[in-house]
Amino acid sequence: MSLDNLLGNWSQYRKAHEDGGFHDYEHRWGMAIDLDICTGCNACSTACYAENNLAVVGKERFEKGQAMHWLRVERYWDQSELDHPEQGASFLPMMCQQCDAATCEPVCPVAATYHTPDGLNAQVYNRCIGSRYCSNNCPFRVRYFNFYSYYESSWPEPLNMQLNPDITVRDKGVMEKCTFCVQRLRSAKDKAKMENRKVEDGDVTTACAQACPTNAIVFGDWQDENSQVAKLWKKHQVTRAVTKQKKDNPEKRGYRIFEELNVDPSTMYLERVREKI
Amino acid sequence: MYNEKDINEQIAWAKINADVLRSMENPRKSYWVAVVMCILMISCAVFAEYIQYTVGMGPSNLNNPHMWDMYIATFVFWIGMSHSGTLLSAILHLIHADWRKPIYRFAEAMTTFSLMTAGLFPIIHLGRVWNMYWVLPYVSDRGHWPNFRSPLVWDAFAISTYLSASMLFLFVGMIPDLAICRDNARGWRKKLYTVLSLGWSGNDRQWRNFRKIYLLMACFLIPLAVSVHSIVSADFAMSIMPGWHVTTFPPYFVAGALYSGCAAIITLFVLLRYFFRFEEYMTLPIMEKTCKLTFAIAMVWSYLNLIEFSSVWYGHDIYNKELLIDKATGAYAWVFWTMLFCGSVLPFTLAFKKMRRHMPTMFVVSLLLNVGMFFERWMIVAPTLSMSHSPHQWDVMWGSIVEWAIVFGSFGWFGLLFLVFVKVFPSVSMYEVKEMVYHRRRHLINEDAATKFHRRSDDGKTTTGEPGLEGA
């Protein structure tokens, strides 16, 4: 092994991520959220609670910061530099961005969080020992830890009947986060397989996207060129595996949050347009 | 003006034995009071941990941005404390600084016990404690391995290696002393020391082997100690968080570790000297040397702090810079400034001879230095979590009584281990003090011989009472 070879391979390895890294994805689930049509109604968050058996922790624990909302609608009020502060808060639905270069993955001591061939950032509840390093290394802070055991307190009889049977109820000491409704993806893939076809756009969507009254959230297979989400990404000149988007038209509103940290998120946001009333 | 001898060369070997063995016997009332206090402190922690174990991590007030807090800060604090023993016994051993001899034993014990304390914290802070062994690469029929990329796994290896190595080092270095204890003990102590001294009879071959293995272990321990704290710093430095992702963290952590360790040595030095009346062994010149060492390390630590602040300031990274400003002016500002005062200003008391030689002052100062170092660890963990990239998740969190009870109890646990140690094992190395005395005496004789040899016949001085080696 020559030195040139070694150095060449090393730089190739180092640049691999910027070139797109691992290419052999089955699907690559992605999302596009239009902040301009988001009304901040929190329907997405509520739908997520219902779909994913999220515990309702109560006012006190919520104030302590121990809430379990996988999808939170962030509100930003005090932006003095805004042109039109009278237009109220800006809303930002924030959930796990399913980063391609997820910072939470390498730090887990037991590899409870890993990357699936679908490009998802999966969390294995059974394997998690609760070291919480993943959350500390997540720039979005979208990982939620079960600080208490919620089964009895959050779903007293007969509320336990409304739990989604497709996924578990997590016990105390386990980290959890948005999965892009992996149980829905799984059944859609199974169904498509039974019918001997590939999953098509529209076969499956996440609970939040389904519940959004203004269709601000679009979900789909980013690899499928005909999918709505891929078209939106393309239209707004947003692409993966870069730390800065190249845009010829500054009017294009698409951006990914914290992409400069090289985490490569799978969710694109469309900037809110502010106009004088 | 002062008697500058590290140790009195005329001290008889039998007296050394007697003094040290006396320290292991007949605990006074104050000893039992201390033991009871330590046990009470531990029970606070056990009770708090019981709550946490049954209810979950919630009662500790940890929340979404603050997933780590005092547990990890205390863990780093105790790991840091453990570095002094290795410094004194291994590094100073290699550079032939023989003044370390009367004080290295308890420093080494401190290393072992603070590691035993530190090791508890990563376990306590786990959400599912009962699965803690999953971090280790044990043979599993499901073929599971830990994630070797995770610094937490490196931690598990580093700490367990360092703990076993430093325990062995402590034990091996104690064998000749255990033999002395064996020869002077009765009852259960006799049995214990007979087993532990491994049939030491002090013959030539044993000493030769002993020296070799001791040197070998000293050489092995130094890179280990440096790497352990570097790996602990990797817990932070390997993340992408502002204030954690810092290149200088490994040396910064090692310097901080040596610093808090040396300060703790001064604390225990004063305590042992006072309670065991070890004035003849733990002498003021040795205290002074320890203080000078601490001062030097304090300056290294301060310098590394300065580097970190200035590189953040001139780096113009918005996240880091805002975090630094927040540290100095935000909710944690009082902790930050106390840390800087205790860590960088207070050590200047060690620069003055009068202060260095005043035991009560040194006791208070060394405790305050460690308060500063505890705050330093807190300032590493908490502000980054309170103010990282996502502004929506900015939050200031103060630990609950449960969290503080466990932190408080850890001091009791350390104290109890140390209290048991000083009564069961010799806290001053008898054979090394004898060596020190012997060498100094030799040196004195040679010096006298030399002066005699060079003296002119007419300078009128006479030598009287030439020190000899009869005591040997």
List the helices and strands and how they pair.
The complex is a heterodimer of chains A (277) and B (472).
Chain A: H1 3-15, E1 29-34, H2 43-51, H3 59-64, E2 72-76, E3 90-94, H4 104-107, E4 113-115, E5 121-123, H5 133-136, E6 144-145, H6 151-154, E7 175-176, H7 182-194, H8 207-211, E8 217-221, H9 228-235, E9 254-255, E10 267-270
Parallel strand pairs in A: 1-10
Antiparallel strand pairs in A: 1-8, 2-3, 4-5, 6-7, 9-10
Chain B: H1 13-23, H2 29-55, H3 70-81, H4 83-94, H5 104-118, H6 120-124, H7 151-184, H8 187-196, H9 204-237, H10 249-275, H11 284-315, H12 318-329, H13 333-345, H14 353-356, H15 359-386, H16 401-424, H17 430-454
Helix pairs in contact in B: 2-16, 3-5, 3-10, 3-15, 4-5, 4-9, 4-10, 5-7, 5-16, 7-8, 7-9, 9-10, 10-11, 10-15, 12-13, 13-15
Structure description:
The complex is a heterodimer of chains A (277) and B (472). The radius of gyration of chain A is 20 Å and the shape is globular. Helices cover 24% and strands 13% of the residues of chain A. Chain A has one domain: Alpha-Beta Plaits (2-Layer Sandwich). In chain A, the strands form 4 sheets. A 4-stranded mixed β-sheet of chain A has the order 8-1-10-9. Chain A has a two-stranded antiparallel sheet with strand order 2-3. Chain A has a two-stranded antiparallel ribbon with strand order 4-5. Chain A contains 9 helices and 10 strands. Chain A is α+β, with helices and mostly antiparallel strands. Chain B is mainly α and 472 residues long. In chain B, α4 crosses α10 and α5 crosses α7. In chain B, 69% of the residues lie in helices and 0% in strands. The C terminus of chain B is likely disordered. Chain B has one domain: Up-down Bundle (Formate dehydrogenase/DMSO reductase fold), CATH 1.20.1630. At the A-B interface, β2, α5 and β6 of A face α7 of B.
